[in-house]
Amino acid sequence: MYSIDWDKVFARRSNGPSESERTGWRALVPAVSRTVWALGVTSMLTDISSEMVASILPMYLVIELGMTPFAFGFIDGIYQGAAALVRVIGGALGDRWNRHKEVAAAGYGLSAACRILLLLAGGAVNAIGGVVALDRIGKGIRTAPRDAMITQSTPKAALATAFGVHRGMDAAGAMLGPLVAFALLAGLPNAFDVVFVASFGAAILGVAAIVLFVPALGDKSGPARRPPGFFPSASGLLRDPGFRRLLVAGVLLSLATISDSFLFLALQKRSALGTAAFPLLYVATSLVTSLFAVPCGRLADRIGRTPVLIAGYAILAGLYVALWATGLGGWLLLAGVVGLLGLYYAATDGVLTAMVAAGLPRESTGSGLAIFATATNVARLLASIAFGYLWMEEGNRPAILIYLSALAVVLIAVGPVLMRKEHGSQTAAAQ
Amino acid sequence: MEAKPPPPNKPLPIAARLGIFAVLTGAIVAAVAAYAIHRRHVAETAAEHDAVAVAIAPMSSSSDFVTAGRILFRNTARGPSYGHVAAVSSSAPGGERTISPLVGDRIYSGGHAIFVLRAHRRALTTYEADCFNADFSPRSSFQLPGAPSRTRVSPDGSLAVSTVFVTGDSYNSGGFSTRTTVYDLRAGKVVGDLEDFAIEKDGQAFRKTDFNFWGVTFGAGNDRFFATVASGGTPYLIEGSIAHRQARVIKNIVECPSLSPDGNRVAFKFRVIENGRFRWSLHAFDLKGGRETIVNELRTVDDQVEWLDESTLLYALPRVGGDSDIWAAPADGTGKPRLLIPDASSPCVVRS
């Protein structure tokens, strides 16, 4: 009987030819480990699941249940801080137990349960608030251990490619989710329960992918070096000049970032676009990101990560210019903003994470990534609040101009430092 | 704490794991498809006949649909008339209902104009507000930027207002915001968003980036209005003028106001936390004397109430299973709530 030795087929991925040794059609497929592919599948299915629900939630709550979303919006505010805390705990626990897989799977499982709980909650305000909070906690728990697994299963020279594969698949899920939800509702009007059931199914498959295909790295690495505990490891990281430099750079860049919703709102002011088309803008942006995340990651591993990162932020600056200038309008502006925003994400998100991950000691990968993600998220939130205030007080064009100037200053200040350091570390590694 | 030793069991061969994943995928796809087919079958069966519990009267002529003494509402009895604008006589609200051809998610009427907010559930859901004459002929139509929540029409039918919930972002990463827009129904034009109105608090300009407006209610003069503006989690009651595009804060912690027909009292939602659980109770207060009463309704009410007369409030309450009914309760806190119109939401009392 003919049989395929799947173990061999898949094992080749982890210790097969490296990125540069591949030829022919195989050069098109990025050489990343099975863990990265499996986590990509998990993230894609989870994003399909969560974006399906997110895209119909306002319709479901406001029209179908006759609710005012503020009812849980105000309960929700309390959990914003809790989510940041949970993220750090998730990273620290993964390190401490050397069990990133289990911690991440628990986070994915919690969010999967939320899909069905949301349906069971019906119109009960308190229950819906609780489910949204649980979902957020699930997302917080899993992020850092997942990125830690991508880091630990990838050689340092291929980290940007690996994160590119993951972020690309993640974006593909974010693109597909709303499309699946709208297709279901178009075929079965008012059948919100079918959307929730389908979303639950996708989430279960996501959990199955991580449980079945991601090897528990702790098992392989033998007796792990005793992890130092979160606070010693955090203070150790913060004393490390390389980590500190990236943390400061990440926070400064985030502070000059305008959130997507404000960019789309500004776009709407410039073009005759109805706000009903907002979900489509997210879908189109995710499509661009999913197409370019892998090429950007591979480029970053070849020519250096800093140039790609800087190019990504230069693209964002170009987007600000397009929105600020009055010359452009209509479809050209629309396509420009969506294309540039998608490219910016493709060139920065995974690449920056790869830069941070490359410098982290193995036993505190999770904590380091969690600290970095939390700091940049808080910076992004502050930037968004400040932008809203400036928009209100000065109008949207002056507000965009201020952020454009800030971004230019940060890039000029941070770019050369990061370039020099990356070059330095490469020469050091070569010696 | 010690790092736990890894479990000794060896993982299954990859072929077995791929097999499990394939079988699971097939099972889940089949289960979702079966559920969707079952759901479609149920919906089709229900759409063939109107629910027997609700008596439907044939409409003799469209000209008398909007008549003083009637209550208009959204019919939510399962069947072909689901979602249609319907009417009952306020003297026999549980009796036969007349069904109009108009379909909507939120409805209101004033001065013989019917204003309907509606979601068009297509591949890309769009929302619109439509104004109809009393004979159901279309008058004007406006695009809405989000899911419809509240609507009101001024007593003479000259102005209308819509509140919708806008969200561009994933619900996991940010909050909702409202857009409250005023329309001139005579000219068929948008007057403006309340966000662009000048708001005053304690004699000073009041302007916040996190402002959300909702729940407009019109006074008898068709210019004075009350509404809620919220900032930093606190909802304020504002009173203002549409023509002057301004308003001022007159009371704290008031949501979804509704002005009584004589213009003297305001009924509203008041948030309470009891034993760690959140609920909206209904209150009413006197604009002149400030005397406040708590309506004897212990269930949470998430609706902009409607005054049936000077002493009775109407509001929709959801039922387990996704349907809703219209209830009535005395505004002065006495008596008990009673079920007024089953399988109905969005009540509107026709006064002239």
What does this structure look like?
The complex is a heterodimer of chains A (431) and B (352). Helices cover 81% and strands 0% of the residues of chain A. Chain A has helices at 6-15, 34-64, 70-97, 100-121, 125-152, 159-187, 192-213, 217-220, 230-239, 241-255, 260-270, 278-303, 305-324, 330-358, 365-394, 396-430. Chain B is mainly β. Chain B has one helix spanning 14-48; strands spanning 56-57, 70-75, 84-89, 97-103, 106-110, 113-120, 126-132, 138-144, 147-153, 159-166, 177-184, 189-193, 198-201, 204-205, 212-218, 224-231, 234-241, 246-252, 255-259, 265-274, 277-286, 292-294, 306-307, 312-318, 324-330, 338-341, 344-349. Classes of the chains: A mainly alpha (431), B mainly beta (352).
Task: Provide a brief overview of the structure.
Chain A has 431 residues and is an all-alpha fold. Chain A has helices at residues 6-15, 34-64, 70-97, 100-121, 125-152, 159-187, 192-213, 217-220, 230-239, 241-255, 260-270, 278-303, 305-324, 330-358, 365-394, 396-430.
SSE topology:
The complex is a heterodimer of chains A (431) and B (352).
Chain A: H1 6-15, H2 34-64, H3 70-97, H4 100-121, H5 125-152, H6 159-187, H7 192-213, H8 217-220, H9 230-239, H10 241-255, H11 260-270, H12 278-303, H13 305-324, H14 330-358, H15 365-394, H16 396-430
Helix pairs in contact in A: 2-4, 2-6, 2-7, 3-4, 3-5, 3-15, 4-5, 4-7, 5-15, 6-12, 6-14, 10-15, 10-16, 11-14, 12-13, 12-14, 13-14, 13-16, 15-16
Chain B: H1 14-48, E1 56-57, E2 70-75, E3 84-89, E4 97-103, E5 106-110, E6 113-120, E7 126-132, E8 138-144, E9 147-153, E10 159-166, E11 177-184, E12 189-193, E13 198-201, E14 204-205, E15 212-218, E16 224-231, E17 234-241, E18 246-252, E19 255-259, E20 265-274, E21 277-286, E22 292-294, E23 306-307, E24 312-318, E25 324-330, E26 338-341, E27 344-349
Parallel strand pairs in B: 1-4, 13-18
Antiparallel strand pairs in B: 2-3, 2-27, 3-4, 5-6, 6-7, 7-8, 9-10, 10-11, 11-12, 13-14, 15-16, 16-17, 17-18, 19-20, 20-21, 21-22, 23-24, 24-25, 25-26
